[in-house]
Amino acid sequence: MKTKLAAALLCLCACSAHAACTQSSQQCVHYKNGNVAGEGACTVTKCQDASGSSLKWQQKGGAAVAVETKNGKTTVNGKPGGQVKNGNAASMGLTCYGVAANKGEQFCATSY
C-alpha cells in the first residue's frame, strides 16, 4: 500500500512540474526592416508553468521564433527582447516580438 501511495504522489509531483501547453492555428508575419519577409498560416504553441511562459511558431519554409518569459525577463530566439510595436501589424490584429539588439526584425502572429 505504501509503495502505491508513494508512486501516486511521485507521479502527481512529476506531472505538476510539466508545462501546460496549447496549440492554435494562427496567421503569422515575419518583418525585416519594415517589409514583409514572409507570411502565412502557422501553428502557435503556448506553454505556461510556474517559472514562466513560452510561445513558439514557425511558418512553413519560413522563420522560426521562440519567445520565453521567465522571472520577468523575455527572450526572443534566446536573446534579450520582447513585445515590439508595429503599426501595420497592429492594424491586422497581430502581436509582434523582436530581439532588442535587432529592431529591424519582427515576428508577429494573430492573438494566441
What keywords describe this structure?
alpha+beta; 2 helices; 112 residues; 8-stranded antiparallel barrel; globular; 8 strands
Walk me through the structure.
- Helices cover 19% and strands 57% of the residues.
- The protein is α+β, with helices and mostly antiparallel strands.
- It has one domain: PH-domain like (Roll), CATH 2.30.29.
- It has an eight-stranded antiparallel β-barrel.
- A hairpin with a 5-residue loop joins β3 and β4.
- The chain is globular.
- Residues 1-16 have low confidence and may be disordered.
Describe how the helices and strands are arranged.
Layout: H1 2-17, E1 20-32, E2 35-49, E3 52-58, E4 64-70, E5 73-76, E6 79-84, H2 87-91, E7 94-99, E8 105-110
Antiparallel strand pairs: 1-2, 1-8, 2-3, 3-4, 4-5, 5-6, 6-7, 7-8
Spatial strand order of the main sheet? 1-2-3-4-5-6-7-8
Number of helical elements: 2
What's the β-strand tally? Answer: 8
* CATH fold topology: PH-domain like
Please state the average pLDDT score. Answer: 85
Number of domains: 1
Distance between the termini: 44 Å
β-strand percent reads: over 45%
> Can you identify the CATH class?
Mainly Beta
Helix content: 10-25%
